[in-house]
Amino acid sequence: MAQAPGKTGVAKSKPAANRGKPAARRVIGPSRPAGAGRPVYLVDGARTPFLRARGKPGPFTPVDLAVQCGRPLLMRQPFAPDAFDTVILGCVNVIADEMNPARVAALRLGMGDAMPAFTVQINCGSGMQSIDTAFRTIEAGKADLILAGGAEALSHAPLVLRQEAAAWFGRFAMAKTALERATALAGFRPEMAKPVIGLERGLTDPITNLNMGQTAEKIGHQFNITREAADAYALESHRRLAKAQKNGALAGEVVPAIDRKGTLYVRDDGVRPDSTMEKLAKLNPAFERPFGRVTPGNSSQITDGACWVILASEEAVKKHGLTPLARIVDSEWSALDPSIMGLGPTLCSTALMQRQGLMRTDIDLWELNEAFAAQVLACVAAWEDEDYCRKVLGLPEIFGTIAHDRLNVDGGAISLGHPVGTSGNRIVLHLVNAMRRRGDKRGIATECIGGGQGGAMLLEVI
User: Fold this and answer.
1) CB 3.0–4.6 Å: which of 136, 158, 234, 370 could bond 412 by disulfide?
2) Do the Cβ atoms of 145 and 116 come closer than 8 Å?
3) In Å, what is the CA distance from 330 to each residue of 194, 285, 339, 374, 378?
């Protein structure tokens, strides 16, 4: 049964400061009462296999992935591709040849020259932001049918010149005489030719100068998440994904992708079902040596992948004879100190439940993006910590334990990868599919977001 705000498991007030940190606050998304606006339905969706980056550009660019995913999804619809009102795509590492990948993808998908399309970027939340933007647009009566997705090819992240190298190239290009060119050439240093990995810079917060792995180390230490616990969680993620692949749980969700050489990709290729605690224990800490707890084995994988969902109003459902899979009930975005960004899900999910008057026991299933095992476990521990729940979440008592069999039941980013602009879209789609398979009614998809934010979305199965 739903419970009024202020009771057990529901935030009593707006999330406050995190243990001596600046106050968290909601930054995106209006605070709306339950039932405001028109109902919005998720009617279909699909994703590509997630392909692990292997030290070189993968077979697909972000738009390639979006097209590979979008074609079979659009082909199975009872309406033409140009029936959509707009296209929204989350993408973080946009490559130079695909500016505004949403528009490029829409054109390649044959959606028509008149199809508006735009790209959104909020780091790890980009794929969910595309859904949320579509949700709010349809809810407000400004559209009836929207294609919302996420696409990311982290293997195509660029190599970046150092600032001194860029300055030297500028001087050399501006030189007009032979003497000026010779003088500029004399100023070249061999180290200028060494590029910087763009992805490494992109995953480092410019405010705190901590990379995402270091922020996971910080909250893991704060909530005493052991290396063994993180490794055990990672092992279970791989086993759950392997089981889902074997029993066909992903069959209706993952569509094959074919590269330009004719190679067929049919499943997520980062899963390691033969992993063991002994193998994981041999891996060195990736970010805080020698005593860190975050390793390559208990972190999300650098991956390429895309996902689309179709959102529709009640009018569009009736007009096209669609079958809704779930209703998007509400969403919430929160912000906090970037150095503890991994705790973002506790803020936005709790605030979302507060507004809807829900208890923890009202949520049948959770998808909490697995950026790092320590980060997921820290969120779970925070919800079980009385001091955190009272001082940070404003709850009268602890939120409580999220049962292991209700959290990321088919694995997550540790085993299948975290294409940054896509993950938020994938967890929403998979949450719906998993709830329908299990006979669940209500679920929350949530994620931490680099830069110190968190996003959450509440869905109900029809």
Assistant:
1) 370
2) no
3) 47, 38, 27, 28, 25
For the chain, what is the radius of gyration of the CA atoms?
23
What confidence tens digit (pLDDT) does each residue in 320-339 have?
999 999 999 999 999 999 99
Could you tell me how far CA 282 lies from the centroid of its own chain?
29
C-alpha distance from residue 174 to each of 180, 191, 233 (Å): 9, 22, 56
- Active-site residues, by number, are 124, 418, 448
| Tens-place pLDDT, residues 354-379 | 999 999 999 999 999 999 999 999 99
d(CA 460, CA 277): 37
Q: Please list the residues that pair with 461 across neighbouring strands.
A: 326
Q: Token pair for residue 218? A: 């910080």
Neighbours of 284 (CB within 10 A): 10
Number of other residues whose CB lies within 10 A of the CB of residue 33: 10
298 φ, ψ to 5°?
-115, 25
Cα dihedral 55→60→62→68 (10° resolution)? -150
Q: Look up residue 36 and give its two tokens.
A: 């405001």
Q: Which residues contact 429 (CB under 8 A, 6 or more apart)?
A: 42, 45, 46, 47, 253, 307, 309
Report the run of H or E that residue 427 belongs to, with start and end. helix 420-438
Q: Where are the alpha helices (DSSP H) in 53-177?
A: 62-75, 101-108, 126-139, 163-174
How much is the pTM? 0.89
